[in-house]
């Protein structure tokens, strides 16, 4: 398998070239184009319970698509649902990914959900991460560009809850206020995740919630009828 990420950093398109017998799995609706020698199979991957957990708890689609190259060389492209970037993670362990940021992966990876615990109640985000583990190739997507951060053992960084995309196993975190009560309420920053290394973090440069808040006042308001 060969891949190329085109049109970075905010209108990215993932192009994958597969040989006969190779396959890719993706979220429903992620495929943009494919050659005729690629076959699609749609299943509730991992069984009914696992698919239901990913949908209800992780914010992903119930069904997943598997694209299999039947003969020769096939080409398939994937794109995020929004104006964002795509990042490749060569997997040999475990990553935690925010719901909505999983794009596609090779067959050797498994996807489950992981409860954040009580601290998730205060993070402003989903209480569950997608837990992706195994060996293979993972592709994640973001809103805006993707900014990588490598934390050394004991090194810390604070990340806005709406800007976290994914982080490597070994990273620990806690939820806290950005500052005092006044700053938390009035600064527009709210709560942050205090993340501690070692490990790698991917951050998106734009927050969907902040964008939605900026966009809402500009939308036409429904007209009342007398």
From TrEMBL:
It comes from the Archaea. Coiled coil: none annotated. Pfam families: AIM24. Transmembrane segments: none annotated. SUPFAM superfamilies: TRAP-like. InterPro entries: AIM24, AIM24_sf, Trp_RNA-bd_attenuator-like_dom. PANTHER family: ALTERED INHERITANCE OF MITOCHONDRIA PROTEIN 24, MITOCHONDRIAL, TRYPTOPHAN RNA-BINDING ATTENUATOR PROTEIN-LIKE PROTEIN. This is TIGR00266 family protein.
């Amino acid at each position: 398998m060969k891949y190329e990420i085109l049109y970075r950093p905010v209108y990215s398109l993932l192009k994958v070239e597969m040989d006969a017998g190779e396959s890719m799995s993706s979220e429903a609706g992620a495929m943009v184009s494919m050659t005729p020698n690629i076959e699609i199979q749609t299943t509730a991957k991992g069984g009914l319970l696992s698919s239901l957990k990913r949908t209800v708890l992780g914010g992903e689609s119930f069904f997943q698509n598997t694209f299999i190259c039947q003969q020769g060389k096939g080409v398939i492209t994937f794109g995020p649902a929004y104006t964002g970037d795509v990042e490749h993670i060569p997997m040999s362990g475990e990553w935690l990914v925010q719901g909505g940021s999983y794009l596609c992966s090779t067959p050797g990876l498994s996807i489950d959900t992981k409860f954040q615990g009580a601290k998730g109640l205060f993070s402003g985000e989903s209480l569950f991460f997608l837990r992706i583990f195994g060996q293979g190739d993972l592709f994640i997507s973001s809103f805006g560009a993707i900014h990588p951060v490598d934390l050394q053992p004991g090194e810390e960084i604070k990340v806005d809850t709406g800007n976290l995309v994914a982080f490597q196993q070994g990273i620990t975190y806690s939820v806290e206020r950005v500052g005092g009560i006044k700053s938390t309420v009035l600064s527009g920053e709210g709560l942050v995740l205090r993340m501690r290394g070692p490990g790698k973090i991917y951050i998106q440069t734009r927050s969907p919630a902040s964008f939605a808040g900026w966009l809402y006042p500009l939308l036409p308001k429904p007209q009342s009828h007398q």
